[in-house]
Write a structure and sequence with these properties.
Blueprint: E1 8-12, H1 19-30, E2 35-39, E3 51-54, H2 63-68, H3 75-86, E4 89-91, E5 95-97, E6 108-111, E7 118-124, H4 130-140, H5 151-158, H6 166-173, H7 180-190, H8 199-202, E8 230-232, H9 240-244, H10 252-260, H11 264-268
Parallel strand pairs: 1-2, 1-4, 2-3
Antiparallel strand pairs: 4-7, 5-8, 6-7
Length: 269
């Protein structure tokens, strides 16, 4: 399909894509979305058609902080700076494109899981908006504690020993403080929370049930609605077995690999 739809983009820190990442990136190409993957290293196994660009085009990635946190940690800052600079839709590398994003969607984010908080795994925002400004100001000028934290969270951080950067100490206290927590808080501050889509649009399967993607007898599509455009596969919750082995025949991941044209074994070799 010719790539005439809105561009999407993501960030990869590392040298090798897992088959789940290949699957998700290629699924957007199949639906006509130009895909850019910003990288910190040379990546040799991205699907054909993915535009590989240096992450430094958007921002410098401090690998020392990445090593203290996680490979996805700085993506929480990167995604908003990327949207502000390029206008592309942010997609996590584990977001499968079920249907194309409509051209008229300006605000793209949704509730997530069984608790109702917003997630930022798939995000579209106007390049200039109050929500963008508040998020970037938070990241660029970190307060001593995230403003929404309660006393117990603050005390938990105070108990940490060592002299790590403030960002690392916040992360070690609450892993989601730079991701869903921040996005939910500032969306409420700006009044944009009301723009949130329902979970079935972007996160139809709750995180707590992510094994269902690998179960040949699982009914993944039972969670979908006519509004579903993206299916989050939650690689951060994927059990080690599935990170090291090809999916079982008949499972949702296996079927989507067949549909899109991804060979899982090749990425594991």
């Amino acid at each position: 399909m010719p790539q005439t739809r809105r561009p999407v983009a993501s960030l990869w820190i590392g040298e090798h894509l897992h088959y789940l990442n290949q699957l998700c990136l290629k699924s957007h190409l199949v639906h006509g979305h130009p895909v850019t993957l910003y990288c910190t290293h040379k990546v040799s196994n991205a699907p054909d058609g993915v535009d590989i660009r240096p992450a430094s085009e958007i921002m410098d990635i401090d690998m020392a902080i990445v090593e203290e946190t996680s490979a996805s940690f700085l993506s929480n800052v990167f995604r908003y700076k990327m949207i502000q600079k390029t206008g592309a839709i942010w997609i996590d590398c584990d977001a499968f494109c079920h249907a194309p994003f409509p051209d008229e969607w300006e605000w793209i984010f949704a509730g997530h899981g069984m608790r109702g908080a917003l997630n930022c795994g798939v995000v579209g925002l106007p390049q200039r908006c109050d929500l963008m400004d508040q998020l970037l100001d938070y990241y660029d000028n970190l307060p001593a504690y995230p403003p929404w934290w309660n006393q117990n969270q603050r005390k938990k951080m105070d108990r940490q020993k060592g002299k790590e950067p403030l960002a690392v100490r916040i992360y070690k206290t609450e892993r989601t403080a730079f991701g869903p927590q921040a996005f939910t808080h500032f969306a409420k501050e700006t009044g944009d929370y009301k723009r949130a889509m329902t979970p079935d649009v972007l996160y139809p399967v709750p995180f707590q049930l992510n094994d269902i993607f690998f179960d040949p007898h699982g009914r993944v599509e039972g969670w979908f609605t006519d509004a579903t455009v993206s299916v989050h596969l939650y690689t951060n919750g994927t059990k080690p077995w599935w990170r090291k082995h090809a999916p079982l025949q008949g499972s949702y991941v296996w079927r989507m690999c067949q549909q899109v044209g991804i060979d899982p074994a090749a990425a594991l070799g």
